[in-house]
Every structure is written in structure tokens, then in C-alpha cells.
Amino acid sequence: MLYMHIAIAPEDLEAFAALGLDAKVINEDLGEALAEEGPVSEFYGGKSLDADLEIIPAHASPDENTIEARQAGLPAASWFTAYRPWAEHATFFNQIQAALPSNSEIFNVGQSFQGRTIYGIHLWGPNGKGSRPAIVFHGTVHAREWISAPVVEYITRELAAGYLNNDASVRAWFGKYDFYFIPFVNPDGFVYTQSTNRLWRKNRQTRSGTSCVGTDGNRNWNFNWGLTGGASTNPCDETYKGLAAGDAPEIRALQTFTQGLRTRGVKLFIDWHSYGQYILLPYGYSCSARAPNHSTQMSVAGGFSNAIRAVSGTSFTYGPSCSTLYATTGSSPDYHSGAINAEFSWTVELRPGPNASNGFVLPAGQIAASGAEQWAGIRYVLNTI
Question: Is the residue at 209 inside a domain?
């Protein structure tokens, strides 16, 4: 079932009702929800991303600063008390890199349609980089899902702090895996939500022959892209899949990046979204298809859900994507499972729950709690797989 969220001005309600569409009111007052979400607040003085972002390689030898000094240099926890402007997020990751100078690097995945850098941070352990199975986390595929980027950032910060604090579990994970965090798959769309339309979903790609803008980055991956029923061929729809698999520049760059990890293997891929509180396993393209290790993935997803509930009491439903929620074709978890052979490949839909009135507009007061519960789930997963 395909559906869309729309915002209707009071003066247009009568005309909308006259259309006779099958519709459900999610929020009686979107303006109130936006007020509860809080303003976008500067943290680093509004530094420009493109001016501030450095593609930083690891140092060849350990930094001379003390561990204590580098711990103090991690981004402050107060980062997670508000949503931040696009221009400041790279500074957050530069701070992480500076705290782990011999075990991290900022990398460039590629460019968005409008020319913004799609960046990530790579973390690894004391035995060097690039030879171990990969853990890959994505955020902000859909522009309006603001909570996804700070959750990716929260987990990154917790891993860095754990490594510096000699947390035995974190140190063990760094010895087994290379971690790749890409918080903004769709930077153009995210900037548009901060400047023009808070509920914009797609990227900002224009095409000849239509005035409608944008491709859905979670319907454009080159795995069962051509099947019908899980995406739209109408460029005006929110789930528009594009003219060809991977023709969105953001997805084309990410596919190239992920293909480069395939030889050593992707152990875990998670694409964070909102909302609904779901843990969605392969596959989205078919409600009967299952990953070869489906029973194992279900068991680990159940443990992930339990770990979240133990921290916050929040319930996350888990199961195969199509049969648990709805059909999707050309999605990133399907691609990573079916084309890359990732051992675990999930979509996690964050707070709020499926019947919440605020939907994509989550109050800033829930950012830290969302990060903490996901971190608890990730700790369980990494200790289990």
C-alpha cells in the first residue's frame, strides 16, 4: 500500500474533503508539533560545512595528546539537546576524528545532485584499517526524518568514547570490524527541509520533461528496482524510483562505495529512518522472500528490540520489511542483503510509534533518549553477531 503525508492549510480543508480521498488525520495542528520540535539551534557558531569539512586521514603515528585530553575533545553531550543546522554537522565529525587521530578518518563518498559533499567517518582498531568486515550505518535518506542523523552521531560518539575509555566490549569490536558512518545520504533534501519545506522527503534532483523535483533514495538502489508494486514511476510521487536504478547521484556514489567493501564483507548494515518504531529485515520487494539466515536475523532483531525496551520501555516491532510494513523495491537494505551479501541488513524506523500525532516532527527533547536506546540495541547486536 502506497500513501503520502500532506500538510493542509485551514483554508484548504473544505476543498480537500471534497476530493473524497481515503485519508486519516495524523496531526490536528502541525504548527504546534513544529513548535514542540524546537528551533534549529547553532552549536558551533554556524560554521559553513563546505568551508569547515576537512577530508582528514589518520595520523601515521599516535597523537602526542593524552587520552584524557582527547576525551575532553569529543563533542559535548549537549549537542543532542536540539536539532542543528546542516552547516555544523561536519564540525561534529571533525571533533570525533581529532579525538581518535590514529584510528579514524573523514572520507568523501561523493557529491549530491546540488554538489554537496556526502561525507562519512571511518573508525578502526589498533591493528590497522581496511582489512576487516565492515559495519555500515546510514542516516537521512529521507530529508524530513531529522532524528536519524543525530542517532547515527550518538552511536559514533559512544563508540569513540568507549574506545578512549578502554571499554572492553568496544575495544573488542574495534578489533573485529571497520565502522563506517554516513549521517547524511541526502544532504540537499535535508537543507531544503531546514530552509523551505520541513516535510520534504526526496532528494532535489531535477529532470527534463517534468516540473516535479526529486527521487526517493530508498527506491533507487540496483536490486529488484524494476519490479512493480513497491515504488512509483510518477516523478511527482514521494516514492518516485527514478528512470533507472542508481540514477540518483547520491545512490550511485553509495553503491560504488559499498561495492568496494564487498570483498572483505559487510557484517552489518543499518539504514536509520523515522517513524514507527520498527526493525525491518529483508526483504521489501517480496512478502514471501527471506534472507538465507532469516532465523538468525530474527533472533538478533528480537534481542535488539528487548535491549531498547530495557532502557526506555519503548517497543519496537521486528520482522521482514514487506510483510511487517509494506512492499518496497530498490531499497538500501534489500540491496545490501541481496547484492552485497551483508550478513545483517536492516531498516530501523525510529521514534515515535506508528500512531503518534507528531510523526516526522519529533521533539528535540527526545533526541538523546532516541540515541541512548539505539546505542543499547547496538551494544547487544555487536556483542551477539
Answer: yes
Q: Find the distance separating the first CA and the last CA of the chain, reported in whole Å.
A: 33
Q: Read off the C-alpha cell for 73.
A: 575533545
Contact (CB, 8 A) for 148 and 224: no
pLDDT band at residue 50 under the 50/70/90 scheme: very low
For the cut 50, the answer to whether the pLDDT of residue 375 exceeds it is yes
Domain contains 99:
yes
Which H or E element spans position 279?
strand 278-281
- A 10 A CB-CB count for 36 gives 14
CATH number at residue 147: 3.40.630.10
Q: Is residue 105 part of a domain?
A: yes
Known catalytic residues are: 349
pTM of the entire predicted model:
0.87
Residue 83 lies in a domain: yes
- Read off φ and ψ for residue 154, nearest 5 degrees: -60, -45
23: helix, strand or coil: coil
Question: Which three cell numbers mark 125?
Answer: 582498531
pLDDT number for residue 87: 87
User: Under a CB-based contact definition with an 8 Å cutoff, are residues 165 and 71 in contact?
Assistant: yes
Question: Rounded CA gap, 105 and 133, in Å?
Answer: 17
Domains identified in the chain, total number = 1
Domain that holds residue 280: 66-384
